Amino acid sequence: MPALKHSRQRESIKNFLTSRYDHPTADTIYTNVRQEFPNISLGTVYRNLALLTDLGEIIKITTDGPDRFDGHVEPHSHFICRKCHAVLDIKMKSEDFIDKEAQKCCSGVIEGHVTQYFGVCSECIKD
Amino acid sequence: MPALKHSRQRESIKNFLTSRYDHPTADTIYTNVRQEFPNISLGTVYRNLALLTDLGEIIKITTDGPDRFDGHVEPHSHFICRKCHAVLDIKMKSEDFIDKEAQKCCSGVIEGHVTQYFGVCSECIKD
DNA sequence: GTGGGTGCAAATACTTTGCAACCGA
DNA sequence: TCGGTTGCAAAGTATTTGCACCCAC
User: Fold this and answer.
1) How far is the CA of A53 from the C1' of C4 (A)?
2) Helix (H, G, I), strand (E, B) or coil at A125
3) Does A116 sit within 8 Å of B115, measured CB to CB?
4) Tens-place pLDDT, residues B75-125
């Protein structure tokens, strides 16, 4: 793995993500970071999101539709709406217990606290 | 929603999925169903997978890489390997408890038993 | 100066869709 | 016959990548 060098673009992407509590797409991030770096390209955004994900500084959330990113890596799970694809945080008291239960039934190593629950959010349930 | 009409292609796709306990991609399904229907197109496979998913007859699993499909809709969760993208079944005794816990912390309606856990599978952990 | 980072554009991967022909009820 | 289904190809969406130039160390 090559030596990491500082980049103001990457810093801006990271800052943007930690400032938000929703789960923006690469495109949303691109649009916002462009206010600070008008010439930044979408490719650079993707490259840095992949890099930050590898470093464990952000979380990549794969759902239907485009990937979402989360700048908050403290233990929590995600609820994903099947209809509108909203991603909401879930913070359970029993999360640690759950991870251990899953671990018991699985031959791999569970990455705690990145569990995804699916369903229909309270907005979409009205239809 | 239009009236459903029988199709031998759809039946074959469904049968293929219920015969397997791994979680094939649309392309794998395409390749295999083609042995019975040499002229079937990938578009037809995708259309039927979407339809069967809507009917609740199969489960669509979204991960990194292409979507995976599961012909077994009995309650169970999935473990997804971050490295090789393998999808493995997890059957926990406490699954019902977990769904209820998640439900408590979430304003939407959790679709029980489609929970996804992430991690590194026992094959990939060797590296 | 060296090597990682960037912008741009082209390429890739996966999935969806328009349309005319086809098939099941 | 009627309308859902199919095969084909083109289009669409999301993401990755090659390359020349730029910037951090």
Assistant:
1) 18
2) helix
3) yes
4) 889 999 888 888 999 988 888 888 888 888 888 888 866 789 988 888 887
Give exposure, B11-42, as e/b (b: 16+ Cβ within 10 Å). Answer: ebbbebbeebeebbbbebbbebbeeeeeebee
In chain A, what residues touch B111 (CB-CB under 8 Å)? 82, 117-120
Instruction: Name the token pair of B67.
Output: 């979507």
Q: Supply the pLDDT for residue B42.
A: 98
For the domain spanning B8-70, the CATH number is: 1.10.10.10
In CATH, the number for domain B77-126 is 3.30.1490.190
CB B108 within 8 A of CB A125: yes
Angle between helices A42-55 and A8-19 (to 10 degrees): 70
- A66 contact residues in B (CB cutoff 8 A): none
